[in-house]
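User: I'm writing a tutorial on reading structure tokens. Could you give me a worked example: one chain, its sequence, then its tokens, then a sentence or two explaining what the tokens reveal?
Assistant: Sure. Here is the example chain.
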Amino acid sequence: MAGLSPLLMSGAATGQYFVSDDGSVKVAAIVMDKNVFPKARSDLEEYKWNDSDFLLATFPKNGTHFMWETMMMLLKGSADYIRTSKGFLMIDASPISFSSKPFPSPRAVNTHYRTDVLPAEFRKAKTVVVMRNPKDTCVSFYYHYKNIKIPLLDDEPNPFENITFAQFMELFLHETDLPYGRYFDYIAHMWSLKDESNILVVFYEDLKTNPLDTIQKVNEFMGTNRSPELVKEIAEAVNFDKMKVGKTTGPLSKETMEMLGSMVM
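And here are its predicted structure tokens:
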């Protein structure tokens, strides 16, 4: 859109893309830190998948943290909150080779990329996919971008800070060159995988309105075989209001990104 170009995080600005094996799909990469990104990308290309791990694939603002916390609680067999930042397992931004110490296997590795642009090692993983109503996704994404604070933008004004919702909705509906691509293209691809044996699709709305049954589906899919009592405890723990109070960690902070940058330089 005129007046918003070229967005600092667009593929045109960073020159970084992930491409499907046949070259038919090209998705702009998220470059949160120019020092860390090359290592994060090379780690993805070299990584050998551990079959005791699980992949969580969601478009941004589609319940990533809600489901990641749930999956980690099922793996741990406890409804206690995970205090270490899930950012260490966000393979889009953090080198996966750095994640083993804070998060040894089994674990839930998370990504916002559609799986056909990830290396084949990740496409064979048992994967939980969360999808959300596009209207709610758009609104949540709008406020996320308006308030975004990432190292890439430290020396530049946030290009979304003064964007109107009408302008952002045009980007959301039509722009294909923002990180992770267009929401509707992402959902169309991931929905096409719903009958694959290694894929479980769940809906954000079900996590909110029927968490017990939804978490039990995830429990069965992962083979964690947790008791109905623990599933109920987890459902109560990941309630949005309770997580706001009880959960204190989030994505990787600026300080952590700087630390990672110093480790890879």
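What the tokens reveal: The first strand starts at residue 17 and ends at 19. The mean pLDDT is 88.
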